[in-house]
Design a protein that fits this description.
- By secondary structure, this protein is of the alpha/beta class.
- The protein has one domain: 3-Layer(aba) Sandwich (Rossmann fold).
- Helices cover 50% and strands 11% of the residues.
- It has a 5-stranded parallel sheet with strand order 2-1-3-4-5, sandwiched between helices.
- Helix 1 packs parallel to helix 9 (195-219).
Amino acid sequence: MIAAIGSLLLAGAIFKAIRTSPRCKDDVDSTSTASSSHVDTPPPATKHDVFLSFRGEDTRDNFTSHLYDALCKANIRTFMDHKLHKGDDISPILLRTIEESEISLIIFSEDYASSTWCMNELIHIMQCKSKHKRIAIPIFYNVDPSNIRKQNGRFGVGFAKLKRRFNQEKLTQWKNALLQSTSLSGWDSKSVRPESELVKKIVEDVLRKLNRKSFVRVEGLVGSIIR
C-alpha cells in the first residue's frame, strides 16, 4: 500500500511539473459566471482536471471521498460538490463547472438514477463530451452496467421513481445519456479489488489522460488526441 501511494505521488509530481496549477477545488467559486445548459463553442477554458458526479447518499462518505483524496494527493485539480442537494433543478454554476472540467468521473451507484440532480448532470456531461471533446469515464460502484443500460434490478428501482414524475421526453433524454455513458470504457468495482487498488488504477488512468493532453499542448503536436 505504501509503495502504491508513493507511485501515485510521484506520478502526480510529474504531472504538476508539466502544468503547474492549484491543487483542488471543493466548491464552485461564488464569483463564477453562471451559464445555462447551452454549451458554447469553442469550449470554455478549463479550471478543473476532474469533475466527480455521484449520488451523495450512496458514496459521499466512502468511495467518493477516498477517490477525491487520492486525486488531490496526485495534484489533480478535482471538483467534488460537498453539498447535499434537494430538488430537481441543477445549478447553472454547476453546469458551467462541468464544462470547465477536462474529465468527468461518473460514479454510478444503485440509487444514482433516483436523483434528478445526478441525471441532469449526466446529460450535461455527455453533451460536453460530444460538443467539446471532454472525457467521460464511468465507474460502476457495486452496480452491474447491464442494469444501468436496461434500467432494471436495484438501479431500475430508482429510475422507476422518475417515471412517475416526468414526461416521456425527459425520460428519453435520461435513457439516452445512460446508454451513451455505459458504452464508454470505464471501471467496475466488482472486477478490481480491493477498493484501494481500484482507486489507485483510476488515478493512474486520469493522470495518463491528462498528461497526454498536456504533452500535446506543450509540444504543439498536430492531430487528434486519442481518448
